[in-house]
Amino acid sequence: MSDDPTNPLESKEFQILKVMKLVLTDVVKDTATQPGLKHPLSDRTIEGIRQCLKLVAARERELVEDAGKTMGMRPHYVDEPKKNVVVPITKIGHNKKDPDKK
User: Fold this and answer.
1) E strand or H helix at 27, and its extent?
2) Please, are residues 4 and 66 in contact by the beta-carbon 8 Å criterion?
3) Residues ≥6 apart with Cβ < 8 Å to 97
């Protein structure tokens, strides 16, 4: 693990945030109860976990954006239509009629 500023996903801080998020979500999963039963964690603790997860997600986003990257970590299909359309600068402007066409 390095603190390479060009790759935030390999920074020590990002790795720490990732582990913290995994541990917090594991605590939530491990303490999940059936509907109608009292949860073993207090309401204050549950709210604290929510706040921690929000802060972790916000900091992860900041690290990625500061490095000039995006959070687009979701997989995409090869044949998936692209959301961006590149328009050549020569196509921008008024519709000029071709002098050869009548």
Assistant:
1) helix 12-30
2) no
3) none
Cα gap 21→16, rounded to integer Å: 9
Q: What is the pTM of this model?
A: 0.60
For range 30-45, the mean pLDDT: 91
C-alpha 52/C-alpha 91 separation (Å) is 49
Distance, in Å, from the CA atom of 102 to the CA atom of 97, rounded to the nearest integer, reads 9
Residue 1: its pLDDT value, please? 44
Distance CA 9, CA 60 (A): 9
DSSP-derived 3-state class of residue 6? coil
pLDDT at 46 over 80: yes
